[in-house]
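Before relying on records like the one below, remember that each one covers exactly one chain. Contacts with other chains, cofactors or solvent are not represented anywhere in the record.
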Amino acid sequence: MITGLVGKTNVGKSCFFAAATLVEVPISNYPFTTIDPNRGIAFVQGKCLCKEFNVECNPRNSQCKDGLRLIPINIIDVAGLVPGAHMGRGLGNKFLDDLRQADAFIHIVDAAGSTDEEGRPCKPGTRDPVDDVRFLEVELTMWMYGIIRKDWDKLARRIEGEKLNIYHAIAERLSGIGVTELDVKKAIGLVGLDIVYPSRWTDEDLKKFASELRRINKPMIIAANKADIPIAEENIKRLKEECKDYIIVPTSSEAELLLRRANEKGLIEYTPGNKEFKINDLKKLDPKQIKALELVQGLILNKWGSTGVQEAIDKAVFDLLKLIVIYPVEDENKLTDKDGNVLPDALLLPQGSTARDLAYKIHTDLGETFVRAIDCRTKRHISADYQLKNYDVIKIIATAGK
């Protein structure tokens, strides 16, 4: 899966990206620091089952840290947005094209209101972060509207004349941005559009449809960044009141980056998402470093409970996309793969996925030759349509391959 970092320029997207991935990227206090998209790997935190089963795990596709399973996801940081981006202003066309394959967005907002609508630095409290949320909604909706509107009249006539399945026809037209038939059906239903005569849809209908489709196909969480600046607290409260459709997570990407780099150098012990850290050797820190760590603890961790970066990533995956963690194994008793690795893989699947879906996730041939599966906790045999539960441990049984 791919999570896209979005927002206007100069609000801390690249810093958030660096803090989440430890990839070195240009970070500066001026607009359009990022031009080409930054791509990297971040991790969502699930539960490792090693403690439950009292085994020593040997992760292959993920990591285990003190009972946490760190599962990799792709993350992309793209060029910042300015008003009018959908019409090509700034780096708008490039920005939007880079986001086509994202499954969800984390909208990085300057909660301190210290950058104007163009991304230029200004006095904290000058800009209303709620306006930044609304402007991005408009840009994303108009981007999707532009894709839908292109050749719409011709498509609508085809649907009517050839009596095509409207959901399939529109989804096929929008497959390049990952839209499914179910997405289209939900959006049409929410707007209440005529599915027999789509040629009668007005431009306003198409914009409403595009807005709902965006919410469904590209769900978004808000990372209220720069939460360490005093005025941000009031703005975060307003964001939660005015933007109730969104999950709002107070964040300080600068604090997270500081902690992760200090941890990487062995100066402290820190797990992303934690509300505290441990200094390994105070003598190895200079006064400036000690002061910086004290500020992070006091202004961020004590106040907000974490830097928010890991929380935003986890909530985007588990709360927004509603994914669950499944552990596939080949030996239901030893919980191993064919090479003897214990609890080797942790896979992310959508809620409602079945045992057969898991088989296809592992390998197409396994899905096509699926016979049954085994719930490794209960040792019970389960059918293809068994609906998986979070943290299930499953063995797939299939016939000999083709």
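Confidence is low (pLDDT under 50) at residues 30-34.
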